Amino acid sequence: MNGLMMDQPLLISSLLTHAERHHGEQQIVSRRVEGDVHRYTYRDMGQRVRRLANALAARGIEQGERVATLAWNGYRHMELYYAVSGSGAVLHTLNPRLHPDQVVWIADHAEDEILFFDLTFLPLIEAIASRVSTIKAFVVMTDRAHMPASSKVPNLLCYEDLIDDHTPDFEWPVFDEKAASSLCYTSGTTGNPKGALYSHRSTMLHTYAAALPDALNCSAKDVILPVVPMFHVNAWGLPYIACMVGAKLVFPGPWLDGKSLHDLFEAEGVTVSAGVPTVWQGLLAHVESNDLHFSTMRRTIIGGSACPPAMMRAFQERYDVQVLHAWGMTELSPVGTVCTLKPCHQTLSAAERLAIQSKQGRSVFGIDMKIVGEDGAELPHDGKTAGELMVRGAWVISNYFKGEGAGPLVNGWFPTGDVSTIDADGFMQITDRSKDVIKSGGEWIGSIDLENIAMAHPAVEMAACIAARHPKWDERPLLIVVKKSGQELTRDELIKFYDGRIAKWWTPDDVVFVDRIPLGATGKVQKNLLRDAHGDHLMANSGSRFA
Ligand code: ADP
Predict the structure, then answer these.
(1) Any idea where the AMP-binding enzyme C-terminal domain is (predicted)?
(2) What's the pLDDT at 502?
């Protein structure tokens, strides 16, 4: 017997309709590529999104067809999120930090029909326009006054003209909630990038779950500033969450340096922000060196890479900003776990609480997880035993876009490629990417722990730990370190810093000081490049203390 409830499919357009009708006066503020600050309401946005949906239809964009963007976080990008998916087409957010060859490969693979881009990316568009095979039109996300002239890309279209040419009368189509809504490619550090194709249903369920108090904890009282780009896993879902809860949204555009972010936090009363650890380093450095504070920001969501405990301490103890450590993947839309404490942790000391907060957290309802050994057998949740993390849930991919063969799942679970522990309270802690694990004499050493210790040293700006080949132990940990400017630090001082902080045999064998550590298109350390450059360091310097 069926229940007697309305049969409403879960569609992304309903988020916008809700924000327009029930939070119409709420603001969206954007620092624009054009240099000024733009401000309007969800009600204004709704009008423009429907005009844009008419413009897409007039250009012949059909349901299921891919519409690409190369854009910063801003209101026009937000309009595309809703106009494209709401119409039943698929929003494909391209990552402008990728090499032009990769952008061409991904756009061709996705068979994008039309590409919308911010003015900043004209040089990239000029580099790829004649090489992409399916894109029929390029639209500059600006007004007529700022339209560039390009000899390399004829017939550039103007975003504001497209909108002006159409009325806001548009009925959002109703279709199957399993229809594709957006497409995001993994950065492809190994092999070609792979497309995660989200559906309306998966996106809506992810939005409900990610907004919950024990997850990203967003409400109508919040002013949300996503630093994480809208071209990286839908800015972790915040453009959808903001409409669902009716929060004010603040977009930083291309200005992601510490000063620009801090100015915007203060000017707009931002209460919650989100980004990868590397972005927050710049912000903290700016705030520290100028003796500033945060008047309204009280929470920051940090994920994408492990958040060093030293950074957590700085935010929480010095600036009264609570860190929400989160773990996710492109393949998970992306939120999988968030580290919010349970009642049993309230009586712990600050140091004990910090140790738990350093974990990546517990599963958000909708994501089930387990760890398995090399034989596939499930491992205990004792907080010590590490194995490959497997997940399943309604917003986890079942296959990659145009995936061939049997697909990535193993008995219905998605193998994340992350190595982790899970403790008895359900808190998961990543020790490594499986491809970055250090195997010393047959035992695993987790590089993230070693990096966190180095990052706690006051003279260290950034640290990465890699597996370096070793004549006796196969692999040993090697630390690659960028010193803070003006600070002195020797190899021996840093190695000594590990005494008492970690099992002795985990201590890195050596330290290589460098000027910079290479970051990939999503802000993660490119350990493959570091291994290429320094992988033989210990073979040449075989003075290992463990040899
Ligand atoms: P990419 O496109 O680079 O794969 P993703 O955002 O999909 O970008 O990367 C997912 C991976 O990032 C995870 O599998 C994990 O290795 C890493 N990651 C994400 N969040 C965290 C975190 N809080 N701590 C440690 N690693 C993380």
Answers:
(1) 450-524
(2) 87
